[in-house]
Amino acid sequence: MDPVTGDLTALAPAEPPRPATSGAGDWVRRNLFRSVGDGIVTVVAAVVIGYVLFRLGRYVFVTGRWEIVRRNLGLFMYGRYPRDELWRIVVALCAISAYGGVFAGHLDRRRADAGITGPRLTPAARARDLLSRFWPLLLGVLVLLLLAGTATPWFVALAVVGAGVAGRLGGGLLGKRWLLPLLGVGVASLVAVMALLLDAAGWDRWGGLMITILLAVAGIVLCFPLGVLLALGRRAGREVNSIGGGIVVAAVVAAIPIVLLVLTGTDPSRPLTWILLGLAVAGGTGGFFVGKRSSLPLVRVLSVVYIEFFRGVPLYVLLFLSYLGLGFFLPRGFDTPGIVVRAVVVFTLFTAAYLAEIVRGGLQSLPRGQTEAAQALGLGPIRTNALIVLPQALRNVIPSIVGQFISLFKDTTLAGAVMGILELLRTSDVANAQADFAGAGLFAETIPFVMFVFWVGCITMSRESQRLERKLGVGTR
């Protein structure tokens, strides 16, 4: 305190002088040329990177022989799908884009109704935000459009974007009660889209990027619930009891004949089909009531055996077995399904085992107090797992889950190597075997193109995963 004025701030220590605002030159000196050694490393790295970029740019824009990609772009994208039926693919893409826009707009409307609003963005700011989020995907689409060489793909891209924008605007007008109807419409639309695409060509006519995405998406959609059930089953015991345990038993028992039906493609008119379905219903119902009175050691043992078996067998071997050896394990008279269905089933069963261990790690990361608090509130096992446990567990393992999905997307190339499916990588071999390009050594063009397409898909999933982690605060307390 100042003895004269009584001012308490008079004796406060003076603030240290703030450094002057540094420019680009100061940043370069501090980060790249701090010492003689740093300067040498910077110069050498700059020369190497510049040389690599020069050779890459020269290869892409000057010396690269991209005619094989241009002439076979349709083969790379949709394989042997009938060219006169490509309008079906356009309609399917527009429908998926419109539904995604409607769902996104509806979620924004619900967040606004709940008072969860972020900073309002101008159209230009929103466009910059979308560009920063999806620039790898936009770059990939732009490359494909430039390689096409005609105006039709540009109109298709504008139609898909327009459908998404219109859907988003329409979804913002839907109230809170529309969530469940929207989910039902989504399932019905998916079935309708698949029926629309398959009406013109069977699975065997699909190929390229289309069949690659189909294998990956089908595997992800099917393995996710199966992996969660396996994780809960492996944790079966006192933590999974009552009705929740019964549902786990019902799902595991019912899944066996369902998977068998998918694998065999049995005609519904055969009595064996109804017997298997009856076993599924009886086993599921029995498991429901048994689970109410037991600690479910059988479910735990079955889940552990399943997980350890599929995690211990290479995916290549499983694909090879389903391709050549499945018929030896089926009764006489059973028709084996197509190779695409077998590939989807193998990817699902294999990935679900890995996903189950990822989810189990998320379950173990939660303190027991979460479950105990839910029980104290009177929540049953189903609501405890669905509303309290699983949301937090899945949030904690988002990086691992997305990493597994990225791995599945890249593993689809094994379906072409083992089973002969015309996926994106195998399309490169088909294009180079054509009479116009045989012996020309153009793998140096087709393989980098395939690598670029895979990079676009993987980096887009990775960036969206990182954005979701930041939004949910993964890794923060």
Word description of this protein:
- It is a single chain.
- It is built from 20 helices and no strands.
- The protein has 477 residues and is mainly α.
- The radius of gyration is 28 Å and the shape is globular.
- Helix 9 packs antiparallel against helix 19, helix 14 runs antiparallel to helix 17 and helix 17 runs antiparallel to helix 20.
- The longest helix is centred in the last third of the chain and has 30 residues.
- It folds into three domains: 39 residues; 119 residues, no CATH class; 260 residues, MetI-like (MetI-like fold, Orthogonal Bundle), CATH 1.10.3720.10.
- 73% of the residues lie in helices and 0% in strands.
- About 8% of the residues have low confidence.
Quick gist of this model?
This protein is mainly alpha-helical and 477 residues long. 73% of the residues lie in helices and 0% in strands. The longest helix is centred in the last third of the chain and has 30 residues, at 443-472.
Based on CA inertia axes, which overall geometry fits?
A: globular
Task: Tell me the strand percentage band.
Answer: under 5%
Structural class: mainly alpha
**Quick one: how many beta strands?**
0
Rg computed from alpha carbons, rounded to a whole number of angstroms: 28 Å
What is the domain tally? 3
CATH class wording of the largest domain:
Mainly Alpha
Residues in helix, %: over 70%
Order of helices and strands: HHHHHHHHHHHHHHHHHHHH
Write down the CATH topology of the largest domain: MetI-like fold
**What does the main sheet amount to?**
none
Helix segment count? 20
CATH superfamily of the largest domain: MetI-like
Overall mean pLDDT stands at 79
Residue stretches low in confidence (pLDDT < 50, at least 5 long) are 238-243, 263-277, 279-294
Distance between the termini: 41 Å
